[in-house]
Amino acid sequence: MSGPKxxxxxxxxxxxxxxxTQCQKLVEKFGYKHxxxxxxxxxxxxxxGSQFGEVIDHxxxxxxxxxxxxx
Length: 71
What we know:
By secondary structure, the protein is mostly helical. It contains three helices and no strands.
């Protein structure tokens, strides 16, 4: 299966720097899909029976970084 390679854009910055706002503008202008690591982690955190939910919850509550093995 060949075809054009998809564009992958990473938007990085500290909390409150406007990453979500900029990503929304990219979605609106170019039709990109937006995947937020934080949103995905919070979704997993709230999933009953999740293999990693408790670990994610611990790190989010303590303001520490979720291990790369989980992200």
